[in-house]
Specification:
Elements lengths: L15 H11 L5 H21 L17 H6 E14 L5 E15 L14 E5 L19 H21 L4 E6 L1 H4 L3 H9 L4 H16 L7 E6 L18 H7 L4 E5 L19 E7 L9 H11 L8 E5 L14 H19 L1
Helix pairs in contact: 1-2, 4-7, 9-10
């Protein structure tokens, strides 16, 4: 099942005042208390925006983070940041380098990571998937462990403790953002992995196992979804290709309640890989683009949902943007008005399709 028929991926455009607050705080020109107050005010406003759009799923917009994984890495003992081995690109061939987590020591949860993101009426917390800490530097991901399996065993304990604390605080919906598995659908990326001496299929197995360990023994009543993302940075992406290469093992073996999947462009392929989603599990169709301002047509969303219904019980489907609007501080090339219109479109489409 899906928690809501209208969903969104989590990150939302940071307002200028919040971006300025991050800059001033980093320069030592704003106190911790003033910085926290600026974040709190921005979160209150973005929760109000979501409610105004009619959404029931509410996040803090990831307003306490520089990027979707930055805070997790900063607050988890044993992790640091280095350059990634992949690059973002767009349809015109423009490229952009980025940074990635690196394992410098034994990992452990030194303190709560996302617990402070609750408390303003929001009910969904997002976290980077375990593979984030490994895949972007898969040729040199760390030196503190003899094997990736041993690393993911320790890392999984960090997630288990975090999810348990979130549940105690009242959170009922946790989302893991999984990019590596999507990249492993891309023939070019698979060739790059093989060229570096890696095995894309074994990596996919490794990352499925890592997710399963991370969500094992989660408290009853906590829904866990995995968002499969092809990269989202200022309108650019990391990979393309349908889910075919990983669908059977990923959908069949990942022990979560539902999947949030990108289907906004032909890069994502068709819906046929959904036949591998076990009966009873949900799929959130990312049919609305967070990368461009053009508003999708209601009839197109309805038609595409009907197409997906050939493979999944319609009651177990939902609709959302394909990704967040600001996986990093800079955000995608859309305005807040565009963001609002697209979030409301998801709500209107859900009401039109599911009543």
């Amino acid at each position: 099942m899906v928690p809501y028929h209208a969903d969104h991926i989590g990150s939302l455009l940071r307002p200028r005042a919040l971006r300025d607050a991050f800059r001033k705080h980093a320069l030592g020109e704003m106190t911790d208390a003033a910085f926290r107050a600026a974040q709190d005010e921005a979160v209150r406003e973005v929760v109000r925006l979501q409610r105004d759009c009619g959404l029931q799923v509410l996040t803090d917009g990831e307003f306490r983070r520089i990027s979707y994984w930055e805070k997790f890495v900063r607050l988890t003992k044993g992790l640091e940041v280095k350059d990634a081995v992949f690059t973002f690109h767009d349809a015109e061939g423009h490229q952009s380098k980025f940074t990635a987590p690196y394992v410098k020591g034994k990992v452990s949860r030194a303190e709560p990571i996302t617990l402070d993101e609750l408390g303003f009426g929001n009910n969904k917390i997002t976290m980077p998937a375990p593979s984030t800490m490994h895949f972007y530097r898969f040729t040199d991901w760390g030196s503190a462990y003899d094997s990736a399996e041993a690393f993911f065993k320790d890392l999984g304990k960090v997630y288990q403790a975090e999810i348990a604390d979130l549940a105690t605080a009242g959170c009922k919906y946790v989302q893991l953002d999984e990019v590596a598995v999507a990249i492993l659908c891309d023939p070019a990326a698979r060739a790059k992995v093989k060229g570096a001496g890696g095995d894309p299929d074994k990596l996919a197995d490794l990352y499925v196992d890592a997710i399963n360990h991370a969500v094992r023994n989660r408290p009853e009543g906590v829904a866990v979804g995995v968002h499969v993302c092809r990269g989202n940075y200022k309108g650019m992406y990391l990979s393309e290709g349908g889910y075919d290469a990983v669908a059977e093992k990923f959908f069949g073996r990942t022990e979560v309640d539902h999947f949030l999947l990108e289907f906004d462009t032909p890069r994502a392929g068709g819906f046929s890989p959904l036949r591998f989603v076990p009966k009873g599990k949900g799929v959130v169709l990312g049919l609305v683009s967070s990368k461009t301002p053009q508003l999708e047509m209601m009839e197109t969303l309805k038609k595409r949902t009907e197409e997906a219904s050939k493979y999944i019980d319609p009651a177990n489907l939902a609709i959302s943007p394909q990704c967040g609007f600001a996986s990093t501080m800079g955000g995608n090339p859309v305005t807040e008005a565009d963001e609002r219109a697209k979030l409301k479109l998801c709500v209107d489409a859900a009401r039109r399709i599911w009543g």
